[in-house]
Amino acid sequence: MSHAMTQTQNTRATAKDLVDRIGLHNLSLIIALAALLAIFGFIRSDVFFSTRNLLNIGMGVAILGVLAISQTTVIVSGGLDISVGSIVGLTTVATAMTIQGTESAGLGLVAGIALGAAAGLVNGLLITYGRINAVIVTLGTMAIFRGIAFILSDGQSISIFDNTFRWIGIGRVLGLPVPIWVLIIVAVAFWVFLHRSIPGRNLYAIGGNPVVARLSGMNLNAYRVSMYVLSGAVAGIAGILLAARTGSGQPISGSQGLELEAITAAFLGGCAMQGGKGTVIGALLGVAIIGVLNNGMILTAVPTFYQMLAKGTLLILAVLLAEYRLNRS
Amino acid sequence: MTNSGGGDLPPPVYREMTGIPVSNATSFLSVHGLTKSFGIVQALADVTLDIRPGEVLALVGENGAGKSTLMRLIEGVFPTDGGEIRIEGKPVTFPGPRSAHDAGIRVIHQEPEIVPHMTVGENIYIGHLPKRAGVLLDARQLSRQTAKLLADFGMERDLSPDQKCEGLGPAQRQMIEIMRAVHAGGRLVAFDEPTSSLTDEEARRLFAVIRRLRADGVAVVYISHRLPEIIELADRIAVLRDGRLIDVSPATGATEDSITRQMVGRDLSEMFPAKEPHGSRVILSVQGMTTDHVSDISLDLHAGEVLGIGGLMGAGRSELAKGLFGFHRRHAGRVTLDGVALPGGDTAAAIMAGMGFAPEDRKEEALLLMQSILDNAVICIPDKVTRGGLFSKTLAQGVIGDIASQLAIKAPSLDTPVGRLSGGNQQKVVLARWLARQPKVLILDEPTRGIDVGAKSEIYALIRNLTRAGLGLIVISSEMPELIGLSDRVIVMAGGRITAEYSAEEMSEDRILRAAMPQTAKPTLPAQEAATI
Prior knowledge:
The complex is a heterodimer of chains A (329) and B (533). Chain A is mainly alpha-helical. Chain A has helices at 2-22, 24-43, 51-76, 84-102, 105-128, 134-153, 163-170, 178-196, 198-208, 210-215, 220-246, 258-268, 280-299, 304-328, and strands at residues 158-159, 172-173, 176-177, 248-249.
């Protein structure tokens, strides 16, 4: 009998260890994800779990995923970047125009990432040295970058015929689409950065309590500007993925509303409004939930208008939950 | 029910209301074996005490000694765990503050609740406003009875019945609260740190009002950290320590020393390690430092020396520390640490050169409360906890584990969030952060604020150990015994400037106080403010 008891205790201890390691919050996200999978899998049992549909979901979340991860980093450091959707649009246009003009896929890549980083630098300088609230700055530049994309493209879609470049969007490696590989690489890089490197760990201090961070010798301005540059550059990568998948540079189609989904995923993933909290794993789980929800709503023929309603509600719910968690702890 | 308060009442109205004969030595309220716990913390243990009409009973004790808990029980905020409260000998239970209020118990809180856009009269008589025709406010009557009450307390020049309460200072707000408490039958009035936001002159007038209450037969409970004013004002002094009543005795003959000894539970001299001589090597040199907050600061700190900084709140002591540490920009002056010139506005340079700084406000300026002990402790030593550029928890645990056990940080593990630790253990985490950095100069701003006595003496011993290792320490403290007990030398600040410097032989509370007074100060009682420094 005592043997049985030790065993139960052991099982209990291991279970508790497991919960500790995964984190209670991530565990609840996994449960929510499983519930969504079960619901949609049940309603559309004919197609939902087909390889094709699962890859569809993966492709759908690849772009959103990289944005959600960099958004998480910005929010951890105490900021917010709502211009990322516009930067994605702008970089698709810039990449398409560069490839059209130079016939070089490489230059297209460089142009997209560099322009994204430059856009982020504008955000970072205005927020840090202009001392303007991050929401206001990126709300303004959200319109500005979108405007520039329209001006550059004259409102037209710019086609890309370069096959090397298109491979990024539609090619496969080891059976997985390239965009999913890009997401994996970005996720691993950010995980190491945020959780294992000193600058990344310092972001939690900067977002959690800027005074403590300064009194611990951190240069807040440098960190903050860098975060927005990084966020812009990652938006550039997302722009390249989008341009390569659609074979075109478009000022608005495909990139509109990405900021909403990225921010929703970040808060679902455990970020706090006032910074200092958030993880890469959490962001990925948030992205997965949004991806499954988007896909499931399409498969179950939920009208587009109601899909928008659902996305907005999800963001507000995610922040509500985040605030509730914070107040309880 | 309003008091009729017309012009025909020579004796004070509240005396008529209460009808208590002055100088009756039997108790108004008494507690017997009162006990209260919060979780595992025994906040109050077996306290028996009587509170008499026409008497000022002072309640003293360190933070966490149980003063506030005792008041909250009497006030009916918390239920008791054990023991009894009696009013005039009859056991009572207060299910809530309302029933204690009905029994005549009033507490004057540090932040009086005043409705800003109502008049002084309305605020005092709120809930008891004189009416006409059953519903209308009798403004003339209100004005008249308020004027009477104000005159009674000698406040007629400070407050007028019909002025709005917006913009009133803390002293005036407090007076309104007191008058509100007594006009409608307050029989026990308790004051919780009433002088903390008052000027000397305002405090004097408050004492006059309190003596007046006493003369009218009100039982007064007076909670304060300021021992001189307690000795001046109280009839009896009750000392609490760790939730227990240590002593109740007449105030006559009590001295600050005797009270402190009872509060702390040992002789003060035992709290502080013996001072030791230090060498003459200057480790930190400051010449003419001026920031937005301090002016023309010059000082030398020697290796192995404890330099104390005294002064009143707002004198610029913390700002001096932040100026040295590079948190504030400098307009002028040179700061040199062991030969290295420190630029202004650059905390990283100060840390690199070997300076550490534990700020006064641990929760707002030192600690990330949601993060673990380990994360908080390693924040300034990135080089020691990385392998190949990446953070290694094993390395971090190695470095911090030793220091944490040396400091005897009490926590389930190094992964415990610091927000869950006690004040003393939180301070030890801050100290661990700097010890891990092995600084040459350490600035401690109010290192023992809100910390229990045991942890205090541990920190004092640590400070002395650090000087033996050749560190230079700057200790900012508002507690006189601590400042004098720890420092090899003291400088005093007022108005952002250094006003005096005393060696260990020269320093005394009296001298430090005098130097701490703002230069334009009125010629009033230095002793009065002693405990605030």
